[in-house]
């Protein structure tokens, strides 16, 4: 088994006993050591602490997003996202919806592949669905725009989009020794 020694970040100042290490690879085991320093020099290396980064969130967006508007309700349905072997399992979905592209979205969470939203008529809404799991929030569906005109019914669908994402941070905390 190959071993890689890498120094990350700068020294902590004063009596700080924690650090954040960024840029790590998801679903990877890391052996982390620290060493103290002062005006007399650098102390010995600590015993390694073993830490495993979480699997990254799902990289695939929800596909086949379908919607049906009836009166003041919009019913959304989509295909279940299946995480790849190296990704965290999908535990739910975040449905983000907002009135226009400049407003802040409202968020509804669900663990199913459908949701019913109450959205007033005579408004335009932008809706996006994102899977999430232990590794964080995954790639979202292509945003869909629903025009809530005073028409009685409307049906629509969104198209396919895909990208890749990753989780790469470990927060590290350690205890300072008072003597060597």
From TrEMBL:
Fibronectin type-III domain segment(s): 1-57, 58-152
PROSITE patterns assigned: FN3
Signal peptide: none
Family matches, as CDD domains: FN3
Superkingdom assignment: Eukaryota
PANTHER family: E3 UBIQUITIN-PROTEIN LIGASE TRIM36-RELATED (PTHR24099), FIBRONECTIN TYPE III DOMAIN-CONTAINING 3BA-RELATED (PTHR24099:SF11)
Name of the protein this chain belongs to: Fibronectin type-III domain-containing protein
Source organism per UniProt: Albula glossodonta
Lineage: Eukaryota, Metazoa, Chordata, Craniata, Vertebrata
């Amino acid at each position: 088994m190959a071993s890689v020694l890498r120094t990350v970040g700068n020294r902590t100042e004063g009596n700080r006993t924690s650090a954040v290490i960024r840029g790590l690879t998801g679903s990877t085991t890391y052996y982390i050591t620290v060493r103290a320093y002062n005006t007399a020099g650098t102390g010995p290396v600590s015993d390694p602490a073993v830490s495993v980064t979480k699997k990254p969130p799902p990289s695939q967006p929800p596909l086949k997003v379908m919607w049906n508007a009836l009166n003041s309700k919009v019913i959304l349905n989509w295909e279940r996202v299946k995480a790849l072997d190296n990704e965290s399992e999908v535990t739910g979905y975040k449905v983000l919806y907002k009135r226009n592209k400049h407003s802040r979205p409202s968020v509804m969470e669900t663990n199913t592949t459908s949701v019913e939203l109450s959205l007033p008529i005579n408004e335009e809404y932008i809706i996006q669905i994102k899977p999430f799991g232990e590794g964080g929030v995954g790639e979202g569906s292509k945003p869909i725009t629903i025009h809530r005109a005073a028409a009685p019914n409307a049906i629509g669908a969104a198209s396919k989009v895909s990208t890749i994402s990753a989780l790469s941070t470990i927060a590290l905390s350690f205890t300072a020794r008072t003597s060597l």
